[in-house]
Amino acid sequence: MGQIRKSAAHLVLCAVLGASGVVASQGAGALANEKTVPTSQAEISLSFAPVVKKVAPAVVNVYASRTVQERRRVSPFFDDPFFRRFFGEQSDRFAPRSRSRVQSSLGSGVIVSEDGTIITNHHVIAGADEVRVALSDRREFDADIILMDERTDLAVLKVRDPDGAFPVVPFADSDGLEVGDLVLAIGNPFGVGQTVTQGIVSAVARNQVGVSDYQFFIQTDAAINPGNSGGALVDLKGRLVGVNTAIFSRSGGSNGIGFAIPANMVEVVASAADDGGIVRRPWVGTSVQPVSSDIAASLGLERPSGVLVTRIQDGSPADRAGIRVGDLILSVGGTEVDDPDAYGYRLATKKVGGTTKFEVMRGGEPFMVEISLERAPETVARDTREIKGNSPFTGVRVMNLSPAVAEELRMYNEFSGVVIADIQARSNAAYVGFKPGDIVVEINGAEVTSTKDLSKLTAKRQRTWNITFKRDGQLRQVSLR
């Protein structure tokens, strides 16, 4: 018998049908299961239908509705002082009237558990009073919101009163995804009904998308449009590699640049639904910055790589493990990190309570260190206070900053101080220009170390207010009379 050859057509067919096993390729010593591209018309005519039949039943349409109060003016003159002066109380009947209106939003979701657990996007069901899901077989169910995680733009739903086991899409290891891999996007664009589009992975680890805290997205040219949000991005084995979440578009339609949240992050949020509905993320107590070409040269590197440690919280897991300011973190859990977004993503996909290995470089010498993955602690009581009275801070809600509070407020480079958590609209503080996340440092020369300090200092009448505060790591000063 001559040498056995299996064509690229067979390789693609194996992928589509989910077959497994060692496949011989052209050339002695080639790796098993080598990825190939179509080389003939027969290979191009192969169909993705088997994958779609396997996955589509587990992709649902999500209908979210919320009741909002609308203010409606009966007359445009109701707030004119001249008008009110002559008509007095009668003008009240011209005042804005409130009426209820139901807003609806449409998206998609993916069933990830036979009990009817569904993953979708946070922005699809944000503020919803009622959620209903429709399956591809036309069954419809009410659904409860189990978990909402704005930081990842993910949410978990649970079918109410299920009538049996549901079809599911299994998770893939999204770290194994490569640029050029074929993928299918399934969802309900523009409400036209379940739609399947095909494309390739255009990029991985894409950041600067701006739809969640964790800027680490799969980019694909598979057509994604409004209504696809929360839908499935699957590989040719019918496994979930991502949840479609955003598009880059000037027209509102697909321009071939779509973004999906990687499945490894999705799985973390889905698992949290069974853990009290709270996403617990590891904290190691470091602040990091990108490595520029100048920094790389100063460290003797051929090219920029890793992230540079700029701050370490005293007593944190990183501190206890011996990490120092100026160290270069090259990898987390065996995976390289080349920017702070990748570093944050790698930590966020680890489980709290375990340990992971960091590859660190110090003085040009790499070494490995094992670091505990813990929850961010509340090292000082937050002592939340609302500032009232008559001062530039009237209308703010402040807290004592700790790693736990910093985590909640998405402040990843600050460990201590008094932070503005919220500001009332049209208040003195809003007029001055303070923003949530500002850290109050000093008032009229007096250091502010706690919310109690701030409360006392703002209770005193002052002719002049000289205020020092920190915003985005930079100290700022303002003087008010």
TrEMBL record:
On whether Ubl conjugation is a keyword of this UniProt record, the answer is no
The entry lists its GO molecular-function terms as: serine-type endopeptidase activity
Which Pfam family would be a valid example here? PDZ_2
Binding positions for substrate? 123, 153, 227-229
Q: Where is the active site?
A: 123, 153, 229
Q: Does the keyword Hydrolase apply?
A: yes
**In what residue span(s) does the PDZ domain sit?**
267-364, 370-450
**What start and end residues bound the annotated signal peptide?**
1-24
**InterPro entries attached here?**
PDZ, PDZ_sf, Pept_S1C_Do, Peptidase_S1_PA, Peptidase_S1C
Q: Which SMART domains match?
A: PDZ
Q: Which domain of life is it from?
A: Bacteria
Q: Which GO terms describe its biological process?
A: proteolysis
| Record keywords | Hydrolase, Protease, Repeat, Serine protease, Signal
**What PANTHER family does this protein's entry cite?**
SERINE PROTEASE FAMILY S1C HTRA-RELATED (PTHR22939), SERINE PROTEASE HTRA2, MITOCHONDRIAL (PTHR22939:SF129)
What family does this chain come from, according to its entry? Belongs to the peptidase S1C family.
NCBIfam families linked = degP_htrA_DO (TIGR02037)
Stated name of the protein: Do/DeqQ family serine protease
Q: Which species is listed as the source?
A: Pseudovibrio denitrificans
